[in-house]
């Protein structure tokens, strides 16, 4: 028999303690409430300070370039159609003078390979250049922050307003800001859908509230993603949702250009008057103004060394150079450089020579070879495609004059923007002839199914299946396609 007393167990809360343990409470006294300890650090909203400088100008240049392409490309016309249009319903993709079909999927695969290799190359050379200057998350965050600054004021004004209770002025400014954000997000969603539906038709349907359900869904989905990611989540996307932040370190080495703080020159840091002698005070060049932290879009302190949260935007380098100018110190306390250059005190020329190391040259060579191969393939691409399918309803039959006839379905796809005539011939067996019309017309950027009857003298070949070839030649433009099939002779 168990000697321990049975009954309900008493749950004792775990209380965070500092210093010596408190004396035990006397028997019968009420228990102290437990302290709930959260395993997560509280999130603090980041209010990046505005900054100007070389890297800021580069970043805004990329913002304008990428958005000029994104928002402007659907409105360009090529002939009588939209210049860039991915018509999923018709299964045709128009890219300026190119008309691509699903059979051209290999070019999409090549584009993805080029994008991946470009990312590897840029990361090996200078870290997260994509993240800091061209990533949609960075670009739209910059645009939303610009709107926020224009409506609510600079960083200090926004922080003071957020700390205060709601007033009419606060409500008005916040409301205007969110209305502008929503307008930009909705415009972005419409533009995105405009790559798949002719944007002029989409604009008319939007004004008339006559958009299809799928157009409404994708417009709202993409607009909501833009509004949420750039307006609210911001750095959280870069820190916790983007996988690139996690595996980018595998592509770094000690000769990768990264945003770096020169600790040897900057430490020990400390505040001082502008005309004070830093050597006499035994201080480094860093005046501990924390402006590098205030301008950082992810809220990190670059003086703590390389961190995965750093997106390489160079904002801290811009603001630090401004401070160095005001103090009369040399620029470059925070700059793009490599770990080896910092440790060995290399000049800029020595640093750049080591940046062009074997892995960078290999990435460049592979990338150049793939891009060249894709461009060459596109230039030599036959402007039409043919699919040959045996007619399953008619396997083989005997027709007039004792001939054996097989019937095929040829799908001819015209990838040009003008009507084309195509001549069809068959070969592979002696005496093989076409029993149907051998010249077909296909309208521009259209496909046409053609029933082709192929005939063979009765005793020209033994029973069984025999390989044959269809040759389709364009009569109006250079191009020829050869497709293989089989001819069935019954026993």
Description:
This protein is an alpha+beta fold and 491 residues long. The chain has a domain at 384-489: Immunoglobulin-like. It has 16 helices and 16 strands. The chain has helices spanning 54-72, 105-126, 129-134, 136-152, 155-163, 168-193, 199-207, 213-233, 235-241, 244-247, 263-266, 291-294, 315-327, 339-344, 348-355, 358-379; strands at residues 77-78, 81-82, 84-87, 92-95, 98-100, 258-261, 334-337, 384-390, 397-399, 403-414, 420-427, 433-434, 439-442, 447-457, 464-474, 480-489. Strands 8, 9, 10, 12 and 14 form a 5-stranded antiparallel β-sheet that branches. A hairpin with a 2-residue loop joins strand 1 (77-78) and strand 2. Helix 1 crosses helix 4 and helix 6 (168-193) packs across helix 8 (213-233). The longest helix is centred in the middle third of the chain and has 26 residues, at 168-193. The chain is elongated, with a radius of gyration of 34 Å. The N and C termini lie far apart (91 Å). Mean pLDDT is 87; it is low at 1-19.
């Amino acid at each position: 028999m168990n000697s321990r007393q049975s009954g309900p167990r008493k749950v004792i809360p775990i209380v965070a303690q500092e210093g010596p343990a408190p004396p035990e409470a006397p028997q019968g006294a009420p228990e102290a409430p437990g302290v709930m300890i959260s395993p997560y650090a509280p999130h603090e909203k980041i209010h990046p300070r505005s900054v100007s400088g070389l890297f800021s100008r580069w970043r805004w240049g990329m913002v304008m370039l990428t958005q000029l392409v994104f928002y402007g490309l659907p409105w360009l016309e090529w002939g009588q159609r939209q210049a860039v249009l991915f018509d999923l319903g018709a299964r045709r993709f128009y890219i300026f003078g190119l008309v691509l079909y699903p059979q051209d999927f290999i070019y999409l695969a090549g584009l993805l390979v080029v994008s991946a290799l470009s990312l590897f190359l840029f990361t090996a050379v200078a870290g997260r250049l994509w993240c800091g200057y061209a990533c949609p998350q960075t670009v739209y965050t910059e645009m939303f922050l610009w709107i926020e600054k224009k409506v609510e004021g600079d960083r200090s004004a926004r922080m003071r307003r957020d700390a205060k209770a709601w007033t009419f002025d606060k409500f008005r400014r916040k409301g205007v800001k969110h209305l502008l954000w929503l307008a930009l997000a909705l415009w972005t969603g419409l533009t995105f859908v405009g790559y798949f539906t002719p944007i002029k038709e989409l604009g008319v349907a939007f004004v008339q509230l006559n958009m299809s359900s799928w157009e409404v869904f994708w417009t709202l989905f993409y607009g909501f993603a833009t509004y949420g990611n750039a307006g609210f989540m911001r750095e959280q996307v870069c820190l916790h949702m983007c996988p690139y932040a996690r595996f980018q370190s595998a592509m770094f080495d000690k000769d990768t250009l990264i945003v770096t703080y020169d600790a040897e020159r900057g430490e020990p840091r400390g505040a001082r008057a502008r005309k004070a002698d830093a050597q006499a005070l035994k201080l480094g060049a860093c005046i501990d103004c924390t402006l590098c932290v205030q301008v950082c879009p992810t809220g990190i302190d670059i003086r703590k060394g390389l961190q995965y949260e750093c997106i390489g935007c160079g904002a801290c380098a811009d603001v630090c150079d401004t401070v160095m100018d005001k103090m009369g110190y040399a620029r470059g306390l925070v700059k793009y450089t490599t770990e080896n250059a910092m440790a060995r005190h290399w000049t800029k020329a020595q640093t750049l020579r080591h940046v062009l190391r074997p892995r960078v040259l290999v990435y460049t060579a592979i990338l150049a070879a793939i891009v060249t191969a894709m461009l060459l393939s596109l230039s030599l691409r036959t402007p039409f495609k043919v699919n040959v399918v045996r007619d399953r309803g008619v396997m083989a039959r005997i027709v007039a004059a004792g001939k054996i006839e097989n019937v095929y379905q040829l799908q001819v796809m015209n990838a040009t923007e003008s009507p084309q005539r195509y001549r069809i011939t068959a070969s592979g067996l002696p005496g093989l002839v076409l029993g149907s019309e051998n010249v077909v017309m296909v309208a521009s950027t259209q496909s046409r199914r053609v029933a082709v009857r192929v005939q063979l003298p009765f005793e020209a070949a033994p029973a069984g299946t025999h390989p044959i070839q269809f040759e389709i030649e364009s009569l109006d433009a250079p191009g020829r396609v050869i497709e293989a099939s089989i001819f069935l002779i019954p026993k």
